[in-house]
Design a protein that fits this description.
The protein is α+β, with helices and mostly antiparallel strands. The protein has a single domain, classed as Roll (Pnp Oxidase, Chain A), CATH 2.30.110. Strand 2 and strand 3 form a beta hairpin. The chain contains five helices and ten strands, in the order E-H-E-E-E-E-H-E-H-H-E-E-E-H-E. Strands 1, 2, 3, 4, 5, 6, 9 and 10 form an eight-stranded antiparallel beta sheet that branches. It starts with a strand and ends with a strand. Belongs to the flavoredoxin family. InterPro entries: Flavin_Rdtase-like_dom, Flavoredoxin, Split_barrel_FMN-bd. GO terms for molecular function: FMN binding; oxidoreductase activity, acting on the CH-NH group of donors, NAD or NADP as acceptor.
Length: 168
């Protein structure tokens, strides 16, 4: 993988996140987990290039994110939708997602985990986190749609600094 500067990005990140999806990965070389996500975004905050992601506390990856300072957001390309389907529907508590998907882990100098199959990876350092609060919704239809009885807990939002951009 080749390191590039964030201002060299030409990807349409709206399309990449919403349609291609991404893997959110956290942990250590010894033990990590990855999950599919398509809620998030990128921007510039506190004079830093940032991404923001949303993770439900019941997800297995949540504990890995909580316990580590770094995480990665990896974009595999549309041709890897099957990987995303497995990583988005199965729990790392119950199976080895790397083995099941054929992903090949790569480890950064900071100890973050990405995958050889990634066309683009953001290595990120956590800056801020907060649980989504139902009382803060202005449009109450969102809580009914995404947090009704069958949908689970409210997400935790993470704002992360993009410290490295890797192109596969």
């Amino acid at each position: 993988m080749k390191e590039i500067r964030v201002n060299e990005l030409t990807d349409n990140l709206f399309e990449a996140i919403s349609k291609e999806w991404m893997l959110v990965t956290a942990g250590t070389k010894e033990k990590f987990n990855t999950m599919t996500a398509n809620w998030g975004g990128t921007g510039f905050l506190w004079n830093r290039p940032v991404a923001f992601i949303f993770i439900r506390p019941e997800r297995y990856t949540f504990d890995f994110i909580e316990q580590n300072d770094y995480l990665t957001l990896s974009f595999l390309g549309e041709e890897h939708k099957e990987v995303h389907k497995i990583c988005g529907s199965k729990s790392g508590r119950d199976m080895d997602k790397v083995k099941a998907t054929g992903l090949s882990p790569l480890f950064t100098e900071n100890g973050s985990i990405t995958f050889e199959q990634a066309r683009l990876t953001f290595e990120c350092k956590k800056l801020y986190a907060d649980l989504i609060k139902p009382e803060n919704f202005i449009d109450k239809s969102i809580t009914d749609r995404w947090y009704g009885e069958s949908h689970g807990d409210f997400h935790k939002m993470y704002v992360v600094e993009i410290v490295n951009v890797l192109r596969g």
